[in-house]
Specification:
This protein is of the alpha/beta class. The protein has a single domain, classed as Aldolase class I (TIM Barrel, Alpha-Beta Barrel). 29% of the residues lie in helices and 24% in strands. The chain contains 7 helices and 9 strands; from the N terminus they run αβββαβαββαβαβαβα. The protein has a 9-stranded mixed beta sheet. The chain is globular. It is an enzyme of class 4 (lyase).
């Protein structure tokens, strides 16, 4: 297949820059502790300085992969599929999620919400970033809001973001892993004083699994 044909298929969402795919335990948020198949798509220009998968940023380093292959792999492992990145909404998620739904699978996304919401989703985890704020539609449809806390100013940001989501959205504060010892006490105190929030931990890292 010539390069231009590949680029056209990526543009249409028929191929995606696949970084990795793996079956594991969801470590964060509402579904923590449950088995899920993760599809990590390359490409992100949001640029969080504390990102723990910076190798996902450059889409060109990850091979364009036909979504049929991705869908068939996912269907052989789990009925819950988590699309993450990178920033998956960099790409058209419509064809991938339609294919997953056709096989009776549940589709979850973890996104900064910085781009137009495409795809058919059973669960949307919105993790907004200051550098590139979510588009309005993602705020409106988010099932959970997960704000990463690196310092005390992120608590102010969290409250600003919470005002924009729908009333049924579940609110989470999650310590950034590299400063967890410093910020966990602050988060605990904040949630106890503001019980509309919950604490989310990266339990997969404590379990030493992907």
């Amino acid at each position: 297949m010539v390069l231009q044909d590949v680029m056209d298929l990526v543009e249409k969402g028929q191929m995606l820059p696949l970084m990795e795919e793996f079956y594991t335990i969801q470590g964060e948020g509402y579904f923590k502790g449950t088995a899920a198949y993760f599809i990590r798509v390359g490409g992100c220009d949001v640029g969080c300085h504390w990102c723990d998968v910076k190798e996902s940023w450059n889409a060109e380093t990850h091979p364009p992969t036909a979504i049929e292959k991705i869908i068939n792999n996912a269907a052989s492992y789990s009925d819950t599929i988590v699309i993450t990145g990178g920033e998956p909404l960099t790409w058209d998620m419509g064809p991938l999620t339609q294919g997953l739904k056709a096989k009776g699978l549940k589709t979850h996304i973890e996104t900064s919400g910085a781009y137009t919401l495409t795809g058919v989703w059973d669960w949307i985890c919105l993790s907004p970033k200051k550098m590139k704020l979510p588009v309005p539609e993602v705020y409106e449809k988010a099932n959970e809001l997960k704000v990463i806390v690196y310092n005390k100013h992120d608590l102010i940001f969290a409250e600003e973001q919470a005002k924009k989501v729908n009333k049924d959205c579940i609110l989470y504060l999650q310590p950034e892993w590299s400063v967890r010892d410093k910020v966990v006490p602050m988060i605990v105190d904040y949630v106890m004083a503001n019980p509309q929030w919950k604490v989310s931990l990266q339990t997969h890292k404590y379990l030493n699994i992907p």
